[in-house]
Structures are given as C-alpha cells and as structure tokens.
Amino acid sequence: MPKKVLIFSGAGISAESGIRTFRDANGLWEEYNVEEVCSIEGFERNPQLVNRFYDARRHDLRYRLPNAAHEMVARLKIKYRNRIEVLTQNVDDLFERAGCPGVIHLHGTLTQLRCMDCGCVFDIGYDSQEGAVCPECESDSIRHNVVMFGENAPMYQKLQDAIDDCDYLVVIGTSGQVINIAFYAPYFEESILNNLDKDESFDSFFTTVYYEKATSAAAKIEADIERFLS
After folding, report:
1. Tens of pLDDT along 28-78?
2. Domain identity same for 11 and 33
3. Which residues contact 117 (CB under 8 A, 6 or more apart)?
4. Which domain holds residue 141?
5. Which of 49, 74, 129, 140 is at 20 to 30 A from 211, Cα to Cα?
6. Are residues 86 and 192 in the same domain?
C-alpha cells in the first residue's frame, strides 16, 4: 500500500494572512466573550450578536489572501491527490483559494450558511447573512455553518478515518487546546509539528518540530513530505 500523509492545521497557518486568532495577543478574545459568540448557549441567548460576529468575520475574510504555507499544502495535495489528506480546524477558505482540492473543515466554514428547519447548507461567500433565506425550503431560520462549543462536530469522524489510514502526520499552527492532536502522533511512523512557540508537554510527542512561522517552515515541511512519499 502506498504511504499516506495527514496534514492537520490550526489557526497558526492563517495568522500570517491576517486572520485573527482567539488566543494570541490582540486576539478575538480581547474583544469578545467566547461563550457569548461561539457557544450554542450564547447563540440561543442572543442570536443577533452571534450573527453580527460571524458577519464581521466573513467580511474580513474577503480581504485576506492565502500565504506560502497554504500554497505549499495545495501544491502537494494536487501532486499527491490520493496520498494526502488535508484536515483543518480553521473556518476560513484560504486553502481553497490557494487551489487546494478536497479540504475537510472539521468545524465548518464561514462562507456557508445552514437552514435550521431543513438542514440545507448553502454558500453565501463573504456577504452578510441578513435577509438570507434557505434556497430549498425558503425558511428565514438561518445560521452560520460553523460548529459552536456545546455542539456535535460530525466531521470528527473524518479525522479518525484519516488517523487510521495515514502513516505520516504533519501538524501546522495549533496548540492542541481544541483537538489534542499530539495524543495521536505516536501512532504514526513519523510526525512533524510546526508552531511558533514551545510547549514541551505538547511538542515532545512529535519526531520533528519547527519553531517558526508557517511560511518560513513551509519549504522544509514540503521537502520532508516529498522525502516520505518518494
């Protein structure tokens, strides 16, 4: 069987494109109470606040561009389409805009909405959801298509499938606080972690660690993956 690679990414890969993270300095947590805008309880209390939050993030995304790390992943996925799985915790569309096919978004995407009546998921791009109606049932009971705290994440089964199916793990830009991907690293033949900051309790599970920006590490990661798949 040909060897396969799982590329798993978090907020750090998009931070260099100007996508603000929650946890970093000047992050979104400094402006918003995460429980109010990113939890199912907050949405039920004040859906208008949550809708405005996601409208603002969608508007901001319109002006962001993929960086060298997104482009590196896209290049490899195109070259080794059936031997690389790309899974991301991010809800932006920068991988897609870099030309990467088959990206699995574990937490949904900003550029889609979901009907709360019939479950239809449809594209909205970077526009506000104000006035949106379902194209299937014409309901105006519409929400963002992003998984909130307190909700099930159905795409997590895709992550488990990829872990079971792949031989090499590449993790870019995540602290592991949402999904502790380091727990799975020892199950792979080899593993790479690329983060800006050190965290020995997390980093020690990986066979190779690059402490630098994702755009700086991109060429090294690409060479490592090429070596493994050759």
Report:
1. 555 678 888 999 999 999 999 999 999 999 999 999 999 999 999 999 999
2. no
3. 134, 137, 139, 141
4. 20-63+109-146
5. 74
6. yes
Task: Return phi, psi of residue 195, to 5°.
Answer: -135, 160
Give how many domains the chain has, as a whole number.
2
pLDDT tens, 103-137? 999 999 999 999 999 999 999 999 999 999 999 99
Task: For residue 220, give both structure tokens.
Answer: 């090294």
Domain boundary at 91, 126, 146, which? 146
Is there a contact between 83 and 166 (Cβ–Cβ < 8 Å)?
no
At 152, list the tokens: 């099930």
Secondary structure of 154-165 in HEC code, one letter for each residue: CCHHHHHHHHHH
CA–CA gap between residue 8 and residue 26 (Å, rounded): 25
Indicate if 125 and 200 belong to the same structural domain. no
Residues known to be catalytic: 107
Do 45 and 75 have their domain in common? Answer: no
Please list, in sequence order, all residues whose beta carbon lies within 8 angstroms of the beta carbon of residue 57, skipping any fewer than 6 positions away: 91, 110
Q: What is the largest CA-CA distance in the chain?
A: 53
Domain containing 130 — which CATH number? 3.30.1600.10
User: Do both 44 and 80 map to the same domain?
Assistant: no
SS3 of 136, please? Answer: coil
* Residues 5 and 28 placed together within one structural domain of the fold: no
Strand partners, 108: 146
